Amino acid sequence: MSKALIxxxxxxxxRSRANQxxxxxxxxxxxxxxxxxxxxxxxxxxxxPAEQALxxxxxxxxxxxxxxxxxxxxxxxxxxxxxxxxxxxxGKGTRKLAGKGLxxxxxxxxxxxxxxxGAVNERPLSEYFLQYDRMANVCGMQKxxxxxxxYGRHTSDADLNKRCADYRANLxxxxxxx
Length: 178
Ligand SMILES: Cc1cc2nc3c(=O)[nH]c(=O)nc-3n(C[C@H](O)[C@H](O)[C@H](O)COP(=O)(O)O)c2cc1C
Description:
- This protein is α/β, with parallel strands linked by helices.
- The protein has seven helices and six strands; from the N terminus they run βαβααβαβααββα.
- It has one domain: Rossmann fold (3-Layer(aba) Sandwich), CATH 3.40.50.360.
- Helix 1 crosses helix 7 (157-177).
- Residues 10, 16-19, 66-70, 107-110, 152-153 line the site of flavin mononucleotide (FMN).
């Protein structure tokens, strides 16, 4: 069985509904480690060698966060700039993450039908995050189909429970496939 590292970035995890529920549904899995960046680095001083060493131990890297301004929260951008540096993640003969899986899990506040041409958010959510395809490509990682949860704070409890079961099943499937 492979091992997954969930690199999680949420500036207000205590007030989260969607991400808390998703993470609670997988936290018992022994092959899954949840790495909460805002908890570990509240002052944004990222320990780059420690992060790089951590990443190397896992087969599946999950990047999970709420959508903030059509983007990722700021600490994850900092992490991306510093940790995925030349000579580690990319560069001649030094792609230490090559071959690993990359699974992106996004939660959005808006409903899914707003992310379409002609609707208020103008285009599919995936188009705002094409950067992750590039990241996987530059690092030689295997980009897996992203997981999206919309209307995160307003879905019914029953729907959210179903999504949690689905998210967990997907993670277990990917761990077998990678
Ligand atoms: C600063 C900020 C920016 C946000 N930007 C977006 C956005 O661009 N698109 C969107 O659909 N939701 C946006 N949201 C809503 C969050 O994505 C949503 O509340 C979150 O994904 C729900 O997950 P949670 O319950 O784990 O916090 C934003 C929320 C905040 C606080």
